[in-house]
Amino acid sequence: FAVESKKTCPFSTKSHVLINFDDPAFHENPELIFQKLRNTAPIQKIILDDGFPVWLISKFNDAIEVLRDHRFIKSPNSLRTSDTDPLKGKTNRASPAYILRRFHMLANDPPNHTRLRIFAQKAFTPKLITAMRPRIQQITNELIDKIQTDKKCDFIDDFAYQLPIIVIAELLGLPVEDREKLRNWSDVLIEVQVTEKNKQSIEESADAFINYLSNVFALRRKNPGNDLISAFLRLELAEDHLTENELYATIFLLIIAGHETTVNLISNGMHSLLSHPKQLNLLKNNPDLIHSAVEEMLRYNGPVINSTMRLAAEDILINGIKIKKGEGVLVIFLSANQDEAKFDDSLRFDITRQNNKHLAFGYGIHFCIGAPLARLECEIAIKTILERLPNIKFNPDADSLEWRASNIIRGLKKFPVVF
Ligand code: HEM
């Protein structure tokens, strides 16, 4: 999700509650700082390193208000033109990195957002995802086969990291051997801040990714399959088609939005279970609780910390606070999901929780389109691990666990387990 959010660390300047996402200590117990933020400065203005003012929204109801208000926009271009391509009609062409970062739905507002999203949803259907169930189960089993005999592994590197990238590569119809290549390109391309130093490597990766996809498109046009890219290309022939650049950006978004997020849902979810042995046993003895358990994993310690940036298209009042035209807004999903005003005993991990309407997948027009796939992968992964490796626990010989010092993804650096 760093695709187009600004660099937001450190979050400390001029704030009432100090938040520094660069500081590993913050990530040890973020819930305590978020609690303080909700109680003392629920709509708090901070100034980024480059002087840009951004409001942090930490309470559930305020988050909903912001996310459903169409006056908070994603693209400054929306104020000027209704066309996706702000360079259209001008002589200079968009750079490859600009295409990948700006031409997809998450960087756009209606009406373009609507067109891009409807297009993707026509191919990325619930039916397609349900049909993936047996294959996701098979990949999960194969990954467990590989680690089982060793009796220990790194839960992220050896398991949680692998499953989502194999699934999305297969869904798109990309050779699974290419996943390292895809990983390297996306690692470079989600670099948050473009500097003179990294600009060239970002452009080179974007160019290589677009060339790669254009070759895949040529092959699929000749030889269509049952995959998502073939479905997109078939749809492209229909009347309201996407431009080739919009197709590249859409596929790029599906790869990056769906990967690290799902990896960390599975691993944070397993971490929550191992940290709460009673809940772990409850799930082992009642596997049918898996659906409510996955929802609680998403709420309690979900993988996405903040929303992507929105901009106020005009002066807007939120809960009596004026956000001025042009200022930025970030919703802290993790905090909204722990809001005591919305969830009973909100800091408790309870896999039987009812009415668990959390914001882990966002809210409003940008609500995650990959939510059914992420839920399915997590459900199969956790259930199968508990069936096949029922004695899984933290590795007692390993160093203490460290959380990543990120302002976007909530996740562990390493997660050694034994079973
Ligand atoms: C949007 C979370 C998995 C594709 C979002 C947003 C969130 C989110 C919070 C909204 C961001 C905002 O409003 O600023 C998650 C989580 C996931 C996950 C927690 C896994 C646990 C996936 C997967 C895919 C995907 C597997 C696809 C393969 C997308 C897309 C959008 C999106 C395309 C943009 C929707 C739009 O702009 O209309 N996701 N996501 N996500 N997600 Fe996910």
TrEMBL record:
Listed A to Z, the keywords are: Heme, Iron, Metal-binding, Monooxygenase, Oxidoreductase
Q: Name one GO molecular function term.
A: iron ion binding
The family classification in the record reads: Belongs to the cytochrome P450 family.
Q: Please state what the protein is called.
A: Cytochrome P450
Species per Swiss-Prot/TrEMBL record: Flavobacterium pectinovorum
